[in-house]
Amino acid sequence: MRLDLERLGTVLVVLVTIVVLASVAVYGSLKLTVDDLHAQVAIARAADPLPSRSLVGERLSAVFASDLAPENLSGLDARGQELDHRADRLLELTAVVALGGMLLALVTGRPAVEVAREPTTPQASTSTNGTV
Q1: In whole angstroms, what is the distance from residue 36 CA to residue 98 CA?
Q2: pLDDT at 94 over 60
Q3: Are 10 and 108 within 8 A, CB to CB?
Q4: Are 67 and 17 in contact, with CB atoms under 8 Å apart?
Q5: Is this prediction's pTM over 0.70?
Q6: What is the DSSP letter of 68?
Q7: Which segments of the chain does DSSP mark as H helices, in order?
Q8: What sign results for the dihedral spanned by CA atoms 123, 126, 127, 128?
Q9: More confident residue, 119 or 24
Q10: Contact assessment for residue 37 and residue 80, using Cβ atoms and an 8 Å cutoff
Q11: How far, in Å, CA of 19 to CA of 96, rounded?
């Protein structure tokens, strides 16, 4: 029974790890989008210094703000703030899922005492027969 629980725990930990990695990737893409939306607004307002835009951020912001006109600066800024808020909530949720995965690994993993140890070399004999 222990081996089955251990395998199930391993599978669940791997699944949680994949979900956490995917969530972190989504968080990163949302942050790129937010940075690009704020850069668009700053460029349109001729802020000094002009921010730079990344190619990936431009494409993502085009997808997330496709319903807004490029001249709608307040709408772009509001969309950026909304996506920034959602990205922060996603990061918080990701942290909770990761913590749950670590707890799952702790509960279902084998204790260190049960882990098979490699055989060690025998200790040297400390008894002598009188000769050096």
Answers
A1: 28
A2: yes
A3: yes
A4: no
A5: yes
A6: S
A7: 2-44, 55-64, 73-108
A8: positive
A9: 24
A10: yes
A11: 12
The answer to whether the CB of 34 falls within 8 A of the CB of 83 is yes
Tokens of 114: 């049960």
Query: Can you tell me whether residue 93 is helix, strand or coil?
Result: helix
Hey, what are 37's tokens? 């939306």
Write down the mean pLDDT value for the chain. Answer: 86
Amino acid at 120: T
Cα distances (angstroms) measured from residue 102 to each of 26, 98, 114: 21, 6, 20
CB atoms < 10 A from the CB of 11, how many?
11
Q: For the CA atoms of 61, 63, 69, 73, what is the dihedral angle to 10 degrees?
A: -20
Note whether 68 and 76 are within 8 A (CB): yes
